[in-house]
Every structure is written in C-alpha cells, then in structure tokens.
Amino acid sequence: MYSTIAGTGRYLPERVLSNHDLEKIVDTTDEWIRERTGIERRHIAAPGETTADLAEKAARRAMEAAGVTPAEIDFLVVGTTTPDVVFPNVGCLVQERLGIAGCAAFSVEAACSGFIYALSVADRFVATGKSRCALVIGAETLSRITDWNDRTTCVLFGDGAGAVVLKPAAEPGIISTHLAADGGYKDLLYHPYGPSRQRDPERDVEGPFIQMKGNEVFKVAVKTLQGIVDVALKANGMDQSAVNWLIPHQANLRIIQATAKRLGLSMERVICTLQDHGNTSAASVPMALDVAVRDGRIRRGDTLLLEAFGGGLTWGACLLRY
Ligand code: ACO
C-alpha cells in the first residue's frame, strides 16, 4: 500500500509587503533583492493572526479539494518553526477548530524542511494502514521572528500555509522520502532563544530573531540539495529525465537554479513562487505545489520531486507521482 495526495490547499495573509515597501524600512533596493534572491513581494500576517489561523484555512482548502470532510481526518501533522505557543502544538489547535478530537495531532520542527519531514511521517502511517486520511500542513509566521531592522534577513521571509490530504492507494503516490540533518551546522542558521535557553539582556547581544550566515548557508544548501535529489532518484533507479516538475523550497532563486541544473531541468519545469511569497519556511513547498496544481501545470500522473533545506541544518526530498 502507498499514500497519495488527494488534495492540496494554501492560504496567504492579506497584507502584501513589496520590495519597494522594504526600501522605506531598511537600507535596501528592489533591484538588490530581486537580483540576489528573486523575491519581489511577500505576505505578512495581520496583528493577532497566528500560524494556526493560516494552517486552518490552508487545511480546509486542501480537504475541499480532496473531497473529504474534517470527520474523515484521522491523523494530523504540522511542520512549523513558529508555533502560536510552546504547547498545545499547532496540530492540536487546528484539530480543535476542525472538531475532530481523538486523532493524533502534533507538530514537527525542522525549520524549512518541516513539511517534507511531516509528509514523510504521515506517508508511513498511511502506507502501513494506520491512517486512512491524513492532513499534512506546513505553516509559518516567520515575520514574528524576523528583525525588521536587519536588511540581511528581513528582505527574505514571509508568512503563509500550505496543506495536503494523504489517502491510501494501491499504486504510488509517494514513491519515497529522504530526510537528513547535520547539527554540526547549527551556528549557520538559528533562533537564539527559547523556553529553556532564555535571553539574558546583560549577556546576550543577539535579539530574539532569526540569525543567519547567508553566504555559508547558500553554499551548504546548494551542495546538500544536489546530493539529496541524486539520492532520491538513485534509490528508485530513476533517471532525472523522469521528473516532470521540481518543487523546491523557495529560499533563493540562485539555489533553485543550481538544483535544476543538476537535474538537467529547464526552469520551465520548476515551480517558482518565491517572487510572490518570499521564503515561508515549512509552508513554501506545499504552497508552491498548490499553486501549480490549481493553475493546471501539474496533472495527475506527473512525477514530482519536492526538496527543502533549512535551519538545523535539515534537508529532505520526496519523489512522488501526483
Ligand atoms: N540590501 C542591500 N544590500 C544588502 C542587503 C540588502 N537587503 N543585504 C546584504 N546586503 C549587502 C551586504 O552588506 C554586502 O555588502 P558588502 O559587500 O559591502 O559587505 C553585500 O550586500 C553582499 O552580501 P552577501 O551576504 O554576500 O550577499 P549574497 O549574494 O550572499 O546574498 C543572501 C545574501 C540572499 C542571504 C544569500 O546568501 C542567501 O540566499 N543565502 C541562503 C539563505 C537560505 O537559503 N536560508 C535557508 C532557509 S532559511 C530557514 O531555514 C529559516
């Protein structure tokens, strides 16, 4: 038995922040941001709007597309690094709103790879018959942990949520998932504080925001992503020409282009949403998937390669037949 994607959905907060808007906040230019990253605008959650709010809306759209009711969901997992609160986890918050008490509901925290990690977990439950209908969400409000005075990071991030419904199938569906991490790179990309390591204003100079050594992250991202897409193809004895669509994590256009080149894919075969969404961490891959499913580019039977990379460092890939 395999799992297969029965429906997709996404939700983006209403407020759009363009590169030109950012020019008024920090010392940057639209030209610099577009040339170095490919990003043109991003969505920002309204005051009081939380990750669970975005996640619920994306989930309802995915369930509608899949033709399932909330009552049919028996497994709920959310990839997020920006939960509403430490606990209850975002999965439980969404579960309560959907009125589906009883099923497992939890979050997976793997930064930008969070959705691929969550999808991998849900796939195992569906493919082994433990779940008949799983809801997998990637949702973030990165704007809440972004330093809006730091031009090296604030131009990159945005908020949003994407979701898929997974159901059992006799044929793949999800062909394989591949997860990896290297905590040795923990100092390249991190948030310095949490419930257990709290900020000491006398000692700590870093603010409670994303810290990133962008250049170094860039190099490791290119290397590890090229490695993991090779691993995914090799594990299934597949040639790169079998891939119809690459759905990459939307962090930087130059990183995406490097992975596409490795696969010998033209950019027409790559789903790019970062110009409109920025880097939305765990939400970026499911949102890009939903965009291309709804605009008709991705069709049933297409072979998709999903990949992501983020703080941890973590990375992962998923090969699937849509
Ligand atoms: N506007 C104008 N100039 C800027 C800006 C800005 N917003 N930001 C930096 N600069 C300047 C720098 O100060 C530097 O100036 P200098 O040469 O005078 O010192 C110059 O531009 C070049 O800076 P670099 O950091 O070398 O620029 P680079 O080409 O590496 O681009 C970027 C930076 C976009 C951050 C890139 O390194 C990148 O995308 N890195 C990977 C990010 C990523 O993938 N993160 C992973 C996921 S995030 C997560 O997990 C939450």
Count all strands and give the number: 13
Let me know the average pLDDT.
97
Which cofactors or ions or other ligands sit in this model? acetyl coenzyme *A
**C-alpha-based Rg, rounded:** 18 Å
Short description:
The chain has ten helices and 13 strands.
Show the helix and strand layout.
Elements: E1 2-11, E2 15-18, H1 19-23, H2 30-37, E3 41-44, H3 51-66, E4 75-79, H4 90-98, E5 104-108, H5 114-127, E6 134-141, H6 151-154, E7 159-169, E8 174-181, E9 189-190, E10 211-212, H7 214-235, E11 245-248, H8 253-263, H9 274-277, H10 284-294, E12 303-310, E13 314-321
Parallel strand pairs: 4-5, 4-6, 11-12
Antiparallel strand pairs: 1-7, 2-3, 6-7, 8-13, 9-10, 12-13
Acetyl coenzyme *A is lined by residues 28, 32-33, 36-37, 111-112, 151-152, 155, 189, 210, 214-215, 217-218, 221, 251-252, 255, 279, 281, 310-311.
Provide the descriptors you would attach to this structure in a database record:
four-stranded mixed β-sheet; 322 residues; five-stranded mixed β-sheet; 32% helix; alpha/beta; 13 strands; 10 helices; 25% strand; single chain; binds acetyl coenzyme *A
